[in-house]
Amino acid sequence: ADAVVVGIGARPATAWLAGSGIELGVHREVVTDDRLRTSAPDVYAVGDCASFPSGRYGERLLVHHWDNAVQGPRTVAAALVGEAPEAYDPVPYFWSEQFGRFVQYAGHHAAADELIWRGDPATPSWTVCWLRDGALVAVLAVGRPRDLAQSRKLIDAATPMDPALVTDPAVPLKKAVRV
Ligand SMILES: Cc1cc2nc3c(=O)[nH]c(=O)nc-3n(C[C@H](O)[C@H](O)[C@H](O)COP(=O)(O)OP(=O)(O)OC[C@H]3O[C@@H](n4cnc5c(N)ncnc54)[C@H](O)[C@@H]3O)c2cc1C
Q1: pLDDT by residue (tens digit) across 15-72?
Q2: Residue 141 Cα to ligand 1 middle (Å)
Q3: Beta carbons within 10 angstroms of residue 69's beta carbon
Q4: What's the 48 CA to ligand 1 centre distance in angstroms?
């Protein structure tokens, strides 16, 4: 291309919270605990503006996706009506459509995780899997919604996988587990 215009990233607009007593994080996001409580009593935060500690991934997550903005309020609503919600620790998920392709990602991965191609990226349908200590932690599926659906359960259960089987796109992911 002669010119490329890139618009990447988002930053929570939380300047108005300065001095409120609500703790902000390094990305200017509202810092919550695993029940999405802020540092101020009876104040909760969900969605793009808030980070939460993920026991699943061992780090604080700031997720800028629609599914997170939909799931988090369940935890908050439970607390507000007097129930004792479980810790908020989802398998993050998003989908998008890019150039006619259905793109889905589930989980969370780091650069150090083992990357496994599943199918040929030169074709319309392929998947990338990331393993950590042999367990599935994240999946990117392009035109392969079945891979995504199966992987969400496998990620949730931290299922140990067989890398040789994961590589073969003809083998369903749920059958590519280590036995
Ligand atoms: C261009 C773009 C494409 C995206 N594509 C995808 C996608 O394909 N898939 C996906 O999963 N996610 C996508 N997202 C992310 C998704 O839109 C967000 O994760 C989601 O909207 C977050 O919801 P939210 O309620 O936390 O915040 P928002 O939807 O941002 O809602 C926050 C609201 O608060 C209002 N507000 C802010 N400050 C104040 C204030 N001081 N007082 C009163 N109101 C205030 C804002 O005006 C806004 O209406 C995309 C986002 C963008 C920008």
Answers
A1: 999 999 999 999 999 999 999 999 999 999 999 999 999 999 999 999 999 999 999 9
A2: 24
A3: 15
A4: 6
User: What distance in angstroms lies between residue 63's CA and the mean position of ligand 1's atoms?
Assistant: 11
Cα→Cα distances 72→66, 79, 142, Å: 10, 11, 26
CATH 3.30.390.30 residue spans of the chain: 93-175
Q: Are 134 and 160 in contact (CB under 8 A)?
A: yes
Ligand 1 neighbours, Cβ below 6 Å, are 13, 16, 47-48, 64-67, 69, 94, 96
Entry pTM: 0.91
CATH of 93-175, picked from 3.40.220.10, 1.50.10.10, 3.30.390.30, 3.40.50.280, is: 3.30.390.30
